[in-house]
Amino acid sequence: ATQAIWAIVAGIYQSSVAREVAYGIQATDAVVVLAEDQEQVDKVLEVRDQLPAVRKIIYQDPKGMRRYRRDPWFMSFDELLDLGKEREQQHPGEIDQLVAAGDPDAVCLMCFSSGTTDLPKPVMLTHRNVLAMGRHFASIEGFRPGDDYLSFLPLAWMGEQMMAVATGMVAGFTVNCPEEVETIDHDLREIGPHLIFSPPRVWEAQMRQIRVKMEDSTWLKRQVFDWGLDVGLKVADLRFAGQPVPLGLRILHRFFHFALYRLVQDRLGFLRLRKAYTAGAALGPDVFRFFHALGINLKQGYGQTETAGIFCFHRDGDIKFETVGTPFPGVEVRVSDKGEILVRGDIVCRGYYRRDEATEKAIDQGWLHTGDAGYLDADGHLVIIDRLSDVMRTQEGHVFSPQFIENKLKFSHYIKEAVVFGDGLPYVAALINIDAQTVGKWAEDRKLTYTTYLDLSQKREVAELIWSEVAQVNARLKPEHRIRRFALLYKLLDADDEELTRTGKVRRALIAQRYRPLFEALYDGSKEVPVRTTFHYQDGRVAEVEVRVAIHSLAEEAGYGLPVATAG
């Protein structure tokens, strides 16, 4: 409705704190703010003095809003609808006239860039950009009006705008929304969508949940799962390579289709699922293979906010887990002499709002400089290495991708997040977040008591568990890329603390600075380091805590391929 009258929509994540809400409103020069409920309204109120241009706050849920009703700054959504009805009576046919007089190259949407290295920038997207994305995607994938899609991601994210709005409008499939955030899993099983789109963090979390449930099951069920997964991986790898599946393996695979794969799919709500997509960050190859082994047609895409969503993705029957697929028809992709991915086409944005210098730097003669390093393989598939600025080189000159190693680590269901370092340094090291749920369950099964995340993360037994997981990853890496030292973070990395973006990407430079004592200890030979930190609790309490964080080492012993523990 807003875009039909040639107004511009800009989204802010529901999880944003007040300062981020203020930044989003200021950066887009918004004059009207639509807030869902009192919680969101209160964030705007907290920064009201910073928003002189805002004329109205429109709230949807009236619960708790009685005390604001006398303030002319506020308007309920019902009042807005009543105003619209009056306008339609006074000016019949006005909407149709506005739509007919529209300009496809007018800006209709502003979404923020990810902001991994600096503040997120508002990206200006036109009607042409958004509809071109929807047409490209729908025409290739053959979405149908009878298809069900579950929209559970924030519309502030370009990926959800691409699926639920752009592609949904073009293809005409049904967009279903969960009743509440807490009911997503239940609603997913109830709806049983044909299509689903999730960032890597969601797929990683689902994989961890499946593995934890299997560990909790009986010995027989674990054996069936492990055998079935092994069969599924073999079949998936043969199909990825375009090779025939031997008869015996086909028979086994068919057996496990009923004995395992369909049971897991049913548990996830994927029985009717035809196509599953992931984008927004790199999905580790191991996670990708895991879901294909379970018979889930997961396809990876690549794009940016600046391209109105993805412009490369896997086609059915042409999937390589180490790539992000091939470009849309009519979209040009090339790699510069510096190894940077460039893209040109009708999906490339107008630029950044009120940031002419940044626009000129990013878009040159229609070519968008993505800032990502990669290459096109012999089959025309795009391979992403990492952010160009994140590709690292050790002191000895060994080039590596920290994101590649991080994804290997996160395949472990005990590791929630990892931040890898090593640029200009003697070796590769990492700061690691344990997964509180899976490690907590592991500890309880072993009668290992703990009180808080901090307490759990610093247990010697937990360190030994994670050491073993890191050692397994090291065994699959080149010697010069192996992690030599790591530390377990005493708190979860959090977007509210600006350590992650709102889409879950790590802010590596900020983390290195904020956890500098730990970062330095990874390289100065320390066995442990004292850290004083402040915890802010939801009830308003503030506590200052001192913790001694151990630094854990791995080394190569002559004659052994696997790392072994050393003192410290």
Describe the structure.
The chain has 568 residues and is of the alpha/beta class. The protein folds into three domains: 1-102, no CATH class; 183-326, no CATH class; 392-565, 2-Layer Sandwich (GMP Synthetase, Chain A, domain 3). Helices cover 37% and strands 23% of the residues. The protein contains 18 helices and 27 strands. Strands 22, 23, 24, 25, 26 and 27 form a six-stranded mixed β-sheet that branches. Strands 9-10-11-12-13 form a five-stranded mixed β-sheet. Strand 26 (542-555) and strand 27 form a beta hairpin. It is globular and about 75 Å long. The termini are far apart. Residues 557-568 have low confidence and may be disordered.
CATH topology of the largest domain: GMP Synthetase, Chain A, domain 3
Q: Helical proportion? A: 25-40%
Return the average pLDDT rounded to an integer.
92
Oligomer: single chain
- What would CATH call the homologous superfamily of the largest domain? ANL, C-terminal domain
**Given the C-alpha coordinates, what overall shape results?**
globular
Q: Could you name the ranges where pLDDT drops below 50 across 5 or more consecutive residues?
A: 557-568
Number of helices: 18
Distance between the termini: 61 Å
Task: Describe the main β-sheet briefly.
Answer: 6 strands, mixed
CATH class of the largest domain: Alpha Beta
Structural class: alpha/beta
- Domain count: the total is 3
Q: Report the CATH architecture of the largest domain.
A: 2-Layer Sandwich
